[in-house]
Write a structure and sequence with these properties.
alpha+beta; elongated
Length: 219
């Protein structure tokens, strides 16, 4: 499905010469974090944040508070993952959409874009989740893909889930096979296994040895 099919036009942008009270009323009626604003010539100007709007004087014009406008938007041909990133970067649940010639078309709602992410194979295809980590300058997505595929696995998706102290953590969704051989291969390539998994025989082996040692010491 084309992302443009999710463009909504229920809320029209307020004009810059509208009263602040009109803006505040919209926020009281809606659950949106931002409201888009346009110029008298229909040009998109930006969005007002709800908290800011309630600090303005209701009897004044919106044009007196243009310094508080937040200038964020996506284009009609922006990929859904980039749209999701724009939502995150601007802490918004509404995203203005502009045409290629910068005309305002409508907006996306955050929940609609998240639903697209939930429909991706990363979520609905059967498989196991594996979380690995390695030095930021040492890991390679091509290497990780090779490790998975060399063990007859199918990499359904991978993303950087954490960055800290020059160590990068990567979450992988792997289908088509058990994870044990893949986990052992990651260890041979000096990846640390963050996630525990029932098929990880290395951990089970350590546990069995520990249990045996305890029994021996208690004899």
């Amino acid at each position: 499905m084309r992302l443009s099919e999710y463009i909504i036009n229920d809320i029209k942008p307020l004009k810059i010469e509208s009263k602040v009270s009109d803006l505040q009323l919209l926020f009281n009626q809606l659950s949106y974090s931002h409201i888009p604003v346009k110029n008298e010539d229909e040009t998109f100007l930006g969005c007002f944040f709800e908290t800011d709007a309630h600090c303005f004087e209701g009897n004044k014009l919106i044009s007196e508070y243009t310094y508080a406008l937040e200038d964020f938007f996506v284009k009609e041909d922006t990929l859904w993952l980039d749209v999701l990133e724009a939502f995150a970067q601007n802490s918004s649940n509404i995203m203005p959409v502009l045409s290629r010639d910068n005309m305002y078309l409508g907006y996306y709602e955050l929940n609609d874009i998240i639903s697209l992410f939930n429909e991706s194979p990363f979520f609905f295809e059967p498989g196991g989740i594996l979380v690995v980590e390695k030095g930021t300058s040492d890991y390679s997505f091509s290497e990780m893909s090779q490790i998975v595929e060399s063990n007859d696995g199918k990499l359904l998706g991978a993303f950087v889930s954490k960055l800290k102290n020059d160590v990068t953590q990567i979450t992988l969704k792997i289908g088509n096979t058990g994870l044990n051989d893949i986990i052992q291969t990651f260890r041979r390539y000096s990846y640390n296994i963050v996630s525990g998994h029932e098929e990880d025989s290395y951990i089970e082996s350590l546990k069995d040895r520990s249990d045996y040692l305890n029994k021996y010491l208690n004899m």
